[in-house]
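HUMAN:
Sorry, I am quite new to this. Are you able to go through these amino acid letters and fold codes? The numbers rather puzzle me.
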Amino acid sequence: MRRLLGLGLLLPCVFLFVLGCKREAPKDPQVGNLVLSLPESQHDTAYSPDCISKLTVDGKDFSEPRATKRTLVVTPAAGMSEVKVEFSFWPQKYTNIIRTKIVTLVKDKATEVDMTKEDPDNPDLIKPIYVPTPNEIVAAMCKLGKIGADDVVYDIGCGDGRLVIQAVKDFGAKKGVGIDIDPELVKKCWANAKKDGVTAKVEFSTQNALEIKSFADASVVLLYVGEDLNLKLKPVLQKTLKTGSRVVSHRFLMGDDWPPDETKTISAKNNAGEEAVYKLHLWTIK
């Protein structure tokens, strides 16, 4: 009788213990049909209001929570099995990369996608943040590039047009070409060129620099666009620029396999009027 009574007391305790274990058990991980590996991104809205990553799938915002591994539940459009994944991120605070992949989903299966690597079929869009080059540095870049009367000067990421304008106005280049991805900046370029009376010698256009297939008509290319875009432009510059053409980059290099022929360190006033140190790099096509 005592043994049965003990067993009767024990059973409720076991039940409560199991119930307690069930209550404390961790939740199952989120189950989804799209598993994304995302590159690291800088988040500094104090530096730039846009400096924060954004993730969308078929235009729907999935940015939060921001992490390098995301598991999502997504539904393709009616009659479709594909979704468009777009990740806008900042590998550095001064460069925004927008990466796109078209992903085919499989029913009842999680599809893993590595967004840390570019899709060759959907090249990255690279957008450097606009920071005006101080006027002293503009002049120093033109001098380093030995710009003269026979030169056609390209400025990739031309901003407000100051490098192109100074190249033709103060250094006598026969033609200046400025390219920028921001149409509002291109409008400013034309306004500044008109103000300086050089519209007949310059061209400005809204264009993605990575869509340019040849720089054969340029004899000098000026750059202040960040390492990511420099590395993307390098093969086209090496392949299409004529022998003797010069490339001048403010601050940023072209990778370990193409060191500059010359680097100059210059002290000059920055845009706030304070003394700062700048590095300019020169490559000559051989």
Summary: The two ends are 103 Å apart (CA to CA). The longest strand covers residues 82-92.
